[in-house]
Amino acid sequence: xxxxxxxxxxxxxxxxxxxxxxxxxxxxxxxxxxxxxxxxxxxxxxxxxxxxxxxxxxxxxxxxxxxxxxxxxxxxxxxxxxxxxxxxxxxxxxxxxxxxxxxxxxxxxxxxxxxxxxxxxxxxxxxxxxxxxxxxxxxxxxxxxxxxxxxxxxxxxxxxxxxxxxxxxxxxxxxxxxxxxxxxxxxxxxxxxxxxxxxxxxxxxxxxxxxxxxxxxxxxx
Length: 221
Known about the structure:
By secondary structure, the protein is α+β, with helices and mostly antiparallel strands. It folds into three domains: 1-80 and 132-146, Chitinase A, domain 3 (Roll), CATH 3.10.50; 83-127, Thrombin, subunit H; 148-221, Alpha-Beta Plaits, CATH 3.30.70.2210. Helix content is 24%, strand content 33%. It is built from six helices and twelve strands. The protein has helices at 24-30, 53-59, 91-96, 150-162, 183-186, 191-205, and strands at 4-13, 18-21, 42-45, 67-72, 86-90, 106-109, 112-120, 123-127, 137-146, 169-173, 176-180, 210-214. The strands form three sheets. Strands 1, 2, 3, 4 and 9 form a five-stranded antiparallel beta sheet that branches. It has a four-stranded antiparallel beta sheet with strand order 5-8-7-6. Helix 4 packs antiparallel against helix 6.
């Protein structure tokens, strides 16, 4: 049986600092707080690649309330650094787009996320490796909740796709699942992609053959 769980964690680079956490207070303390992010327990379907390989393996069989400190080598994290993913780009290409390249700056090139390493001699050294590639990571993780019913699992999947399950209506009839969405959700510009993601995971993990989404639009007075 596949476990649907929610975890809290603090993720660090070994012999380095914290780079991610589900705790808002910790994020503020470590100087990595993102005001656009909602800090809360993270829903995970264990063994399905929803987190990096080393952490996914460590979560197997963990019980609610259980804590672990997990050390994850690069090959089970974000991979080893690949020198072939480092390119030299003429600085004029940045100037043509009115971009001033600065070491450490993240950017997107040809649809891929990269980071500028150095700027010298009219050329910019750009690294397409994941920022955490080649690093050993340490996760302090705790299982906070585990879904027991189909309804609980549905809520976990809603949180994965919509970042929240509050104020959603859920109705199950046989293998048909009807989701009534709150107004702030169906007016989200990314709602179509979120629906598609939720539906795909529902078909994969739950005994469901049809998903219906309800929206209620009201004329403003």
